[in-house]
Amino acid sequence: MRQPSVISRRVAAAAAVLAVAAGAAACGPEGSSKGGDGSSGAAGAPKKGGTLTVLNSAPQEDFDPARLYTSGGGNVPSLVFRTLTTRNREDGAAGSKVVPDLATDLGTPSRNATVWTYTLKDNLKYEDGTAITSADIKYGIERSFAAELSGGAPYLRDWLVGGAGYQGPYKDKKGLDSILTPDAKTIVFHLNKPEGEFPFLATQTQTTPVPKAKDTGTKYEEHPLSSGPYKVVRNEGDGERLTLERNTYWSPGTDEERKAYPDRIDVRSGLDSAVINQRLSASQGADAAAVTTDTNLGPAELAKVSGDKKLAARVGTGHFGYTNYIAFNPKVKPFDNPKVRQAISYAVDRSSVVNAAGGSSLAEPATTFLPDQASFGYTPYDAFPAGKTGNAAKAKELLKEAGYPKGLTVTLTHNNEKNFATSPEIATALQEALKKAGITVKLRGLESNAYSDTVYNVKTEPGFFLGGWGADWPSGGPFFAPIFDGRQIVRAGYNFNSGQLNDSAVNKEIDEINKLTDLSAAAKRWGALDKKVGEQALTVPLFHPVYKRLYGESVRNVVISDWTGVLDISQVAVK
């Protein structure tokens, strides 16, 4: 999280997630099935064959495993790129689990979780029939360090011994000594600190095998060598039009996660969201066998769809691990006073915020920073109970104690983009609620790029602004630490620790939790830490987004997990 270029990409991605609801935690629609035996959508069991069309707003840019910022293998990328581990392709909470992919298991850790060893499955092959080796995975990771292939998640750079100074195989042909391949089926990682969540990191596309002899550098994205059930036969406009066909050397016997029902995947991007939803609604021609992985139904569209039983039956519902919140910068007055932050916490009317976010079908009120899913360590608490509509009387009492008996005036910075998350609608709802507590809120709207550049810079960070945070994978570590670990405060680049908290006890507990390889035990401690930090009122959790997506009437086997919150196209059938 410390490279500004990577961080800015993540901020942009997070904004895109909110603008089009690109990911959410999940339960599939009624009748959806697990994995691949039942059916959802059109009647009948799923069968092989046909063409699945994907209608998206954003193109699948940088289709190179080194450059993608995904976890669980991604959605479209996961059809081509297999990784050491991947997400469990099941509905709901079961889908938040990490499972083996190329590897035989989740890895064997050393006693202190600083060394992780993986063994590859037998009979793994690329689209050209050649064998996949551990050396290919090592090389695939190393090339992700090259400056010209930047864009992926920064964890390997941070976690691997020697990773911080490594510049990739094009400049340093020796490679990383911290990745060992004693034989063709074994790969060993040496980390500079204990990381019990390494199996989650191993789901990143950077662990995709890339044979050195086939590496074409920045042109590799045009035709990456497939290790998954589909291969790329067309890539136009940097992912705007992507066509995938079957990889005949992929063996389902080595892959329990991908069903690969369609014969062909046709990805068409650069479309207006309203057009996508209209086409999915009409389901004419090829659009009957179409889905979207990045376009949500907005409040007005959802109201229309909800009134039509046939359309409503084709809506998938998901909840991605994401929290929208108010952020405070205690370095700016009057937010240096905890009682002012507490007063605002009590004054918030979450009902009006939820309505501004599109209503209860699209947003759920939040009182915890961690998302309300067990995999994150969710522990219910409400440090400043304000009820559904706020507690203005308690807020006024705290303001008086803070030295503001007649109230105060503050400025709230928000994004001008109409994303129902950090946008004017949410800001206005908060403005009206705080007014009841004697707090006059002036609104400061910024265009999207200026908003990100302003609020994520310690030099320009305002005292009071709207923020949001999503998970790189469904657990407490990558969700909690970037916001509250003092060692992750970035002075010269994008900084997400808005409260600039640098508490030695909090930092120590983060380190202790990271040592745990028992992820259930770790989750409980993340939840306890969330409650402890939440009492400092450095943020005010507002809501967790809910995602509603249409799919074509011929689409079967809809699976939406708590890892991504979106329809998993590796499970979809169209016949």
UniProtKB/TrEMBL annotation:
Entry keyword annotation includes Signal: yes
Domain spans labelled Solute-binding protein family: 97-487
Residue numbers spanned by region Disordered: 26-57, 208-230
Signal peptide: 1-26
UniProt-listed InterPro entries: Peptide/Ni-bd, SBP_5, SBP_5_dom
Basic and acidic residues biased stretches: 212-224
Keywords attached to this entry: Signal
Superkingdom: Bacteria
UniProt-recorded name of the protein: ABC transporter substrate-binding protein
Source organism of the structure: Streptomyces laculatispora
